[in-house]
């Protein structure tokens, strides 16, 4: 399956954070294709720190929930804490990796709606820093 991911960071050396996250993804699945890096304002909360975001496409036979667990492991390994505070509000973060969309082995979009994973991402259309990289990675797909 092909997974379309978004990596975001607004703390520390943002460019280095993106490169470290992409290296971890590549090491786990044999490579990745990346969009252009873009800068964006924080979404859903106020912060003086702007984000850098990059879209990444990876191919793996792992099941979606296993990929989600793997992404959380990468975030923790890179030193990222939760991206929400104790009240559930978004906060600054070192690295956040989200699954934007998934294609099955025939290139058809996968839909998942569970308490822990929604695909396509419920905010794919609301967030330009998701949508622009996604369209770069999958230009033939009309949303």
Can you walk through the features of this model?
- With 143 residues, the chain is of the alpha+beta class.
- The chain has one domain (2-137): 2-Layer Sandwich (Alpha-Beta Plaits).
- Helix content is 28%, strand content 24%.
- The chain has helices at 14-29, 64-77, 128-137; strands at 2-9, 33-34, 38-40, 51-59, 96-103, 112-113, 118-119.
- Strands 1, 2, 3, 4 and 5 form a five-stranded antiparallel beta sheet that branches. Strands 6-7 form a two-stranded antiparallel ribbon.
- Strand 6 and strand 7 form a beta hairpin.
- The longest helix has 16 residues, at 14-29.
Keywords, separated by commas or semicolons:
143 residues, alpha+beta, Alpha-Beta Plaits, two-stranded antiparallel ribbon, 28% helix, globular
How many domains, in number, for the residues? 1
Could you list the spans in which at least 5 consecutive residues all have pLDDT below 50? Answer: none
Helix count from the secondary structure assignment: 3
Largest sheet: 5 strands, antiparallel
**Overall CATH class:** Alpha Beta
Q: Approximately how much helix is present in the residues?
A: 25-40%
Distance between the termini: 19 Å
